[in-house]
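For consistency, the fold was encoded as tokens, as this record shows:
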Amino acid sequence: MSDIKKSDVVVLGAGPGGYTAAFMASDLGMSVTLVDPEANPGGVCLHRGCIPTKSLLHVSKMKQEAMKASQWGMTFEAPKVEIDKVREWKDSVINRLTGGLGQLSKARKINYVRGYGHFDSSNTMTISNVDGGTSQLEFKQAIIATGSEPRRLPFLNYDSEKILDAKKALELKSIPERLLVIGGGYIGLEIGYIYQALGAKSTIVEMTASLMPGMDPELTKIFENHNKNFYEGILKETKVAKVNELDSHLEVTFEDKNGEQHTQDFDAIMVAIGQAPSNHSFGIENTKVELADNGFVKVDHQQRTSDENIFAIGDVVGGPLLAHKASYEARIAAEVIAGKKSANDAQVIPAVVYTDPEIATVGISEPEAKAKGLNYKVAKFPWAASGRAIAMGDPTGLTKLIIDADTERILGAGICGKNAGDLISEMALAVEMAATATDIEQTIHPHPTLSETIMETAGAFYGNATHVFQKMK
């Protein structure tokens, strides 16, 4: 056992929340220890989540673009997927980004420790280093940023090479001929898209009546219609009742909403049924930190836990399990620890599904507005009327605004279409600044761009959108 080291702040977990908190705390003049088992900061998001997924989605979408280019008068030979080179590309992206974070950590003189932290009390921690040995740390404040982990189905053998979670799927060791994706949320659909584009026959199975449960059904319907012939199959209101692993394949028994069963064969199964908080194995029981009934860490508006010395951020505290939410909460925690008057007052958190077409949302959706009994109106603009979308060969899409009928303030937005994720930030800013439909409609947007669809949608609210004809409001 080495001598006890001391630090103003220790951050447990180096994902987007953890490393942002560590960097911010260091920038504010505190000594910081950042603990994570990876060689460089980045967490699940950079090492085996957001970044590798988006790298592979880029490759997949490039292949699909090349395949449909003949419609525009440009013909290529059939795209050939070299899986080893695709994997190398994905790994190079990860290494570049995480390596950069490692350099930033050193530049800030952060004590980055490769290991697993375990609270011994509210101000002491034992760190088990990945290369062996342990060390002890005393700290004034701690930030828990341990994230979340995939939920598991109890009847599956996760030691089998045929059973994949997101981490194993993104390693891209091989492309199975027939892949079953259990779960029609964004993780399942994104990875199912990647494997389908790279040569697998992907089938999606979802227990609910719609893909992307909780999403505005008008947006998901556009996605489903666009992809009805892309995936090998989409089974809704269906569950997996049994999986029999044979030497050559997996025999899967499905059960529909009427209780009727049928069996299909697959070469691999990818499970994406949601995430659970990573709230175990780091000694939380040795602190005063309290958990909610669902296992997430309880925090207040300043990210404080019930232990005065410990804060928590990101997936482990619940809410939307998104990297940018974790980064936002990280800055708040670091500022509060530094004595600044800071609080979590975000009005909205945008979300993006990086499928084809992309779906991006922010604020209140139409179903939510209806359920809350709000006095609202909906404005829409179809991308079939967008010059930019048509010129790009991607007219599938819709921009939709939820507007307060009395004040005309923007309450929320949903965008389905190419690069929707790059468009949604304008609407997040609009909600945060209490912008009205007039503010959006009278802001000049460059032509021809997809962003014009936002301006046109606001115009549609007043009945004077240029490229769609309708009666005045």
